[in-house]
Design brief:
Length: about 350
């Protein structure tokens, strides 16, 4: 697995998580909340890495609003490694900024990049897969992504098509496909060639910096200006960096991308219905958090901080009760919760954001 002391992890923790309103708010988004367990999602992410990558080699990229909370939640991560973006510019600048900082500390580092808000059921299997990806990436030739063996024709995920085999269980990437329709997703799953794109990446810090310079030179120039800028110029310098994802900006253009498959109980926790998948559910398929009474009701998610939620004769609902807001929606419309957030912003009801 190469030099274990040169493996660093970069956790991307800058998302707003609007689909988890009313729990997720601007000041305390999903990744900073205990969504699945009694630990917050970012705490679970750091703890999951610990047997391979200790907290002293973890870097977290976030926004100004969340940096203080992250330092409180992650006391073992060096404070200087909570990296603050003045404004969110998508994943390519965030990864490029982290790569530049890691390169200063360890130019030969191998860099694991992962989101702060994914759930992984089997930590041991995850670390075994990550070790195989690190082994492939540590030679410096490949930009490696981890793909998830698909279990259903999911249309909310991107897909990776496996190309020629590099070694057992390691393939070149033939192509990426973003969120296919149902028919195409069914074809992908039947073929056995496709994996879900987990958004977890591994590469040598020099390899990703070279790829960014080749495919996104404007991003690299902007990052260089930002790193060199004086304090009064910092925000303006970062705002000038193009908004670009690592997938579109680099991985879909590069010819040295490889994929390692994994099967470790991965879920991206993209909306409230993820909890219906994860359970535990009662005999009628209801998943509850807090004080909930469900009578003659099936397949509901209900969660309350304090007050009692009582359900009678309903099916397929999501009911989330917080101190100042209640969400009630059909489980098949949870992807539209973002529209509530947009409408709150339009009306100026900032106290609920």
């Amino acid at each position: 697995m190469g030099d274990a002391t040169s493996i660093h992890a970069v956790i991307l923790a800058g998302g707003k998580a609007t689909r988890f309103w009313p729990k997720s708010r601007a000041r305390l988004p999903k990744q900073l909340l205990p969504i699945v367990s009694d630990r917050t999602m970012v705490q679970e992410t750091v703890e999951r890495l610990a047997p391979l990558i200790p907290a002293r080699r973890v870097w977290v990229v976030t926004g100004e609003d969340h940096a203080g909370e992250l330092r409180d939640q992650l006391p073992d991560v060096p404070a200087a490694q909570i990296v603050v973006e003045p404004i969110g510019r998508n994943t390519a600048p965030a990864i490029g900024l982290a790569a530049a900082l890691i390169a200063r500390a360890d130019p030969r580092a191998t860099m694991v990049v992962l989101p702060a808000d994914h759930h992984i059921r089997y930590g041991d299997r995850f670390r075994e897969t990550l070790a195989r990806a690190i082994d492939l990436a540590s030679a410096g030739t490949f930009l490696v992504t981890i793909g998830i063996e698909p279990t259903t024709p999911e249309t909310a995920y991107g897909y990776i098509e496996r190309g020629e085999e590099i070694a057992a269980g390691k393939n070149r990437v033939r192509r990426f496909t973003e969120k296919p329709d149902r028919s195409l997703a069914e074809d992908f799953v039947r073929s056995g060639r496709y994996l879900w794109n987990s958004g977890i990446f591994v590469w040598k810090v020099g390899a990703i910096r070279e790829a960014l310079a080749r495919h996104l030179p404007d991003v690299v120039r902007g990052l260089e200006r930002f790193v060199a800028a004086g304090s009064a110029e910092v925000a303006a310098a970062y705002r000038a960096i193009p908004d670009q994802s690592i997938d579109y900006g680099v991985l879909e253009k590069a010819d040295n991308v490889a994929v390692v498959p994994g099967d470790f109980g991965w879920d991206d926790i993209g909306s409230w219905t993820a909890l219906l998948r994860l359970g535990p559910a009662d005999a009628d398929g209801n998943v509850v958090r807090g004080r909930v009474l469900a009578l003659s009701s099936r397949g509901n998610l209900a969660a309350s901080d304090k007050r009692l939620i009582a359900l009678i004769g309903v099916e397929g609902l999501v009911v989330i009760d917080t101190e100042d807001a209640v969400l009630v929606c059909s489980a098949d419309r949870v992807q539209d919760v973002k529209q509530i957030v947009d409408e709150l912003q339009r009306r100026g009801w900032k106290e609920h954001l």
